[in-house]
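User: Hi! I'm a student and our assignment asks us to look at how structure tokens line up with a sequence. Could you show me two examples?

Assistant: Happy to help. In each example below, the sequence comes first and the structure tokens follow. Example one:
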Amino acid sequence: MSIDTLDRIETKVFERPTSLIDTEMHYCPGCGHGTAHRLIAEVIDEMGIVEETIGVAPVGCSVFAYNYIGVDFSEAAHGRASAVATGIKRVLPEKYVFSYQGDGDLAAIGTGETIHTCNRGENILIIFINNGIYGMTGGQMAPTTLPNMKSTTSPFGRDTKSMGYPLKITELVAQLPGTYYVTRQSVHKPLNVRRTKKAIQKGFEYQKLNKGTSFIEIVSNCPSNWKMTPVESNKWLDENMLPYYPLGDIKVPNEKEA
């Protein structure tokens, strides 16, 4: 390897993945969706599966994933992404199939689809963005909204006595025998970004084994609906979201199987 090549490798700090479409992002400043998109694109590039990957995006901020990730995509009705992904994977079992969903979509209107997809052990990857609020529709309380957290439909904070408790759906699906790999990560710090990328890679690779559903929750921020700057929202995420939604693997495959 030449010195020129070594210099180029050591000084390169950024390169856009080829499967990340070169277009202007519409997300609010500081939003975690853009980082999640980039990680998915990086993994798809590095695995060389651009032509073999199909994504499913439903309603919500996640619906625009097909604007940025250059693979085949299908749009699904609100909450139905895992059901659509199931149909695609069963018809095209050789493809890498993933859904990209928000908390209001996956854990509210799509709770039934999510639970039954995981319980059947459909051989897909579900990527779940949890920012504790409805993003696109105006900041309403979501199933994942924290106790006492304010939203447009809980302006005085979430009262658990009348509104119930936040739904930890990732822990819930981890109990189902159909799930193979379940983890919770984040994208608000460089170390967490690297861990999330590794989790996404595992989620795609495990489809080769046909052992069941891989489920990756990504705890993210929503500066606009949290009414904070991006920096403030990352700090609030650390201090409030992560104690309730702790990061780390929840269910991992047996080493002999993986």
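Example two works the same way, sequence first and then tokens:
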Amino acid sequence: MLDIVGVEKTFNPGTINEKKALNGITLHLDEGDFVTVIGGNGAGKSTMLNMIAGVYPVDCGSIVIDGVDVTRLPEYKRAKYLGRVFQDPMTGTAADMQIEENLALAARRGKIRGLKAGITAKERREFRELLTMLDLGLEDRLTAKVGLLSGGQRQALTLLMATLSKPKVLLLDEHTAALDPKTAKKVLDITEEIVGKNNLATIMITHNMADAIRVGNRLIMMHDGRIVVDVKGEEKKKLTIEQLLKMFEASSGSEFTSDKVMLSK
């Protein structure tokens, strides 16, 4: 479903601020793979997601989504293959629009739009069913403005919108980091349910080591723009935080020093 081969990216080349963000990243995802990504600041995690999404052009290498080479496609052209949820709950929804209007926009992504009625009765029924799955009481608030929702409700809605059209790849960029622990767990549970139900190839960046180990079927750790740890299947299920840190140190040749990650263990 996703093939990244030898992707490199350097920001501000030839200047005093030169930064090698990605150093020959190669990654393959099958349909249904749920990969958690962990690493310190500057490891290249968000840059990798931005390369997949087309936010920045790659210096070299290739990116293929479901057999389509999107390496040179601009961001807006490859958006139809992707769903993305950001860290900020305020990103990804239109605050001044109603819940049902936001969902309708998401449902029409990549489709030709005509002059027929904005939201049909059939769509309202479908939206209500989808919102019921979230168990947040939003199914009875279809006409409420999204700006009135809590951060957790808004992030859950964003997640629903990002997956409504069943993207080829779902990108989650620390999408629970701005939420309180109880709400973060709720959103993460909803994430697992949606990804599992739709069998989506998913990449989730997180700073929480316990979540990185527990969630998904594969875990990668990044350091200095490289993937230094790649664990999957039964090995991942049996992994402990201490073992993960030892694997990182053995592969990278340095200790894991991210305060944010260590505090979230």
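Here is something you could point out in your write-up. The first strand starts at residue 2 and ends at 11.
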